[in-house]
Specification:
transferase, Leucine Aminopeptidase, subunit E, domain 1, 23 strands, 19% strand, globular, CHCR, 7-stranded mixed sheet, 39% helix, Macro_dom, alpha/beta, NAD+ poly-ADP-ribosyltransferase activity
């Protein structure tokens, strides 16, 4: 931008306006800054660069009254929706990842972070004020009420609102200290408290600013080392996606954080890549956590309705691609798909598909089906064989993740199989959307949609043949199978029963096959065995129905709803005993079941289905709640008194 120094003979505002019209916002800011047009410079920071923190910092630096200068611009911008997050570019690149993509450092604005939590130092007047401005009255009022009630509270937790993209805001006070050891300890405590609260609330992603590196003028090296080190230590036992968000013009701070993350990053051979793949006919579907613009495929796909995604892709591609997009859009405003050159990206072509979200489930499903069909037809017409798609609609559009993911994967599987396409299809999910990633993995690896080839399963060697198609076989008390079950039951039920009447093996072949298919999916997706032997108590009539029809959702909530409205199992037989009822002969019955708990989380009575990204809920002690018919198999029925 050396040419700025040669503008004395020209009208600087006109040149700045030309820069703005060409989306060269940093250059426009530099021009206004050079020619001391402070108000216009502030306006560029707010309207175009959309960084309130920089605006406040710049205003103070040039001696402009902050309230009069910036607040007026902010109010104007908010009135015109200039700070609308949908039009902002989230900071996806450049980034640096540590093990399991847990830690990243990125350039951007904390307000725009689509994480579960953003952390704000309430002692930083610039950051605090910009967050409250962006969050509106809801955030300011909630904070004020809580701090009035508890002036010395170590943390104030507020639900996000207004222009803030995260779900929650954690406000924490912090004070600098000239003693470096005390300062380091205070930083560690600050970061630890925020992470511990996020872990306690089951959040999966959190974003921190570079605290102390602005107005406090603290050592960048000390701050970055303390913050990164504390995060790294916490993540060893509690996996989470953590972002350090650095202002775009603070390269020295970014570099220092990058250096410390690199120092803690394990060798490439030990990095666990967040990627899975499944074979579909001649083609392959992959799921990856990463950046859509980095994909080395023939074509990457974006949605023209997503301002965030569109700008990320076009900015990364460069001016030629932007010009091509503008020309195509002007020439064919009603086109369902716009194809443009890839510019600086490693792909060959970029497709922007016209798509709009909808609250109506049927309309949403149809629109996603049409979107995939449009992509497939155009990939074929271009003779491409590889394509990368983002998790469309799962960000600010806030569409149902369950519907979006299931529909996109199902439709793509259908095209690969029916058209016999030898393609590589990649679904690329942002690092801070682990629940979306898990859902894509679940849908890609499932065999229940009928697209995968049939697998031959072997029945247990203990099963007996029956010409009458019996499903219940009473075990002999002399066999090891009986003795093991009876011994474990006796140990668990001391003092709660007098005798075991019989133990029956359940041989429902259809149900068993469904359970095995589910088991295969779980092991492939989670890369581990999560099967447990658990008890389920119920009345005799319910047991007879379960043996024929499995633990279907009609039993959801029958044994309680405290940890979710599903089917309850327990490793504690005395707990399950509480849900049995004696029949006319005083006999009770309890199942010993094989249960796939999968990825589990603590439940509550509001959960009517499994939380996205999880397979079951739990009390974190002995209770597990399932939400899928084939997730459990009643292997034995114990009848006792």
């Amino acid at each position: 931008m050396d040419y700025i120094n040669r503008l004395e003979n020209y009208d600087a505002p006109d040149i700045a306006n030309i820069a703005i019209s060409n989306q060269l916002f940093e250059e426009a800011f530099s021009i206004y800054k050079e020619f001391e047009v402070a108000t216009s410079a502030i306006q560029v920071l707010i309207d175009h660069i959309k960084n309130l923190d920089r605006a406040y910092e710049f205003a103070e630096g040039v001696g402009v009254d902050v309230d009069a200068g910036v607040d007026e611009c902010v109010e104007s911008a908010i009135d015109m929706d200039a700070l609308h997050v949908e039009d902002e570019i989230p900071p996806l690149t450049p980034d640096v990842r540590s093990q399991r993509s847990s830690i990243i450092v990125c350039h951007g604005d904390l307000i725009a972070q689509e994480t579960d939590v953003i952390v704000v130092c309430s002692s930083s007047k610039y950051l605090f004020k910009s967050i409250c401005q962006a969050g509106g009255d809801s955030v300011s009022t909630s904070y004020s009420q809580q701090i009035s009630a508890s002036p010395n509270a170590p943390i104030i937790i507020v639900e996000s609102a207004g222009k803030i993209a995260s779900k929650m805001i954690y406000f924490l006070p912090w004070e600098i200290n000239p003693d470096q050891s005390i300062l380091c300890k205070s930083i560690e405590d600050f970061v630890s408290l925020a992470l511990e609260k996020a872990i306690e609330h089951k959040y999966r992603s959190i974003a921190f600013p570079a605290m102390g590196c602005g107005g406090f003028k603290c050592s960048i090296q000390l701050i970055s080392r303390s913050m990164v080190g504390t995060v790294y230590s916490k993540l060893k036992t509690n996996p989470m996606s953590v972002s350090f968000v650095i202002q775009p013009d603070k390269k020295d701070i970014y570099d220092e954080f990058k250096k410390h993350i690199d120092e803690l990053q394990p060798p490439p051979s030990s990095i666990i890549l967040k990627a899975i793949a499944a074979k579909l006919g001649k083609g392959t579907i992959e799921v990856e956590m990463g950046d859509i613009t980095k994909q080395k495929v023939d074509v990457i796909v974006g949605s023209s309705s997503s301002g965030i995604l569109r700008e990320i892709i076009i900015n990364a591609a460069g001016k030629e691609s932007r010009m091509s997009y503008d020309i195509e859009l002007k020439s064919h405003p009603n086109s369902v798909l716009i194809a443009i050159p890839s510019g600086s990206l490693p792909c060959k072509r970029i497709f922007f598909v016209k798509w709009e979200p909808n609250d109506n489930e049927e309309i949403l499903q149809q629109s996603l089906s049409d979107l995939i069909s449009t992509v497939v037809q155009n990939v074929i017409s271009h003779n491409f064989t590889s394509v990368a798609l983002p998790a469309i609609g799962c960000g600010k559009h806030a569409c149902s993740v369950d519907i979006v993911v299931k529909m996109m994967v199902h439709e793509m599987k259908k095209h690969l199989i029916q058209r016999k396409l030898s393609w590589t299809v990649k679904f690329v999910v942002n690092d801070n959307q682990e629940n979306v990633y898990d859902e894509f993995c679940k849908q890609v690896l499932t065999t229940e949609d009928g697209f995968h080839e049939a697998t031959t399963y072997q029945l247990p060697v203990t099963w007996e043949k029956s010409a009458e198609h019996k499903t219940r076989f009473t075990l002999s008390t002399k066999v090891h199978e009986y003795q093991t079950i009876a011994s474990n039951f006796d140990s668990a039920m001391k003092g709660k029963y007098t005798e075991v009447i019989k133990i029956e093996r359940i041989q429902n072949e259809r149900w068993y096959m469904q359970y095995l298919a589910h088991t295969k999916d779980f092991r492939k997706r989670l890369n581990m065995d999560t099967e447990k032997r658990l008890y389920h108590g119920c009345p005799e009539q319910a047991a007879n129905t379960i043996i024929e029809d499995c633990f279907n959702r009609s039993y959801a909530g029958v044994n309680g709803t405290a940890y979710g409205v599903g089917v309850y199992f327990s490793s504690d037989a005395t707990y399950s005993h509480g849900y049995t009822k004696p029949n006319a002969n005083g006999e009770r019955c309890m199942f010993l079941s094989r249960v796939l708990v999968g990825k589990t989380t603590k439940g509550n009575n509001k959960m009517k289905t499994r939380p996205l990204g999880f397979d079951s809920t739990t009390d974190e002690k002995h209770i597990f709640v399932t939400y899928h018919d084939a997730q459990a198999f009643a292997e034995y029925l114990i009848t006792y008194k």
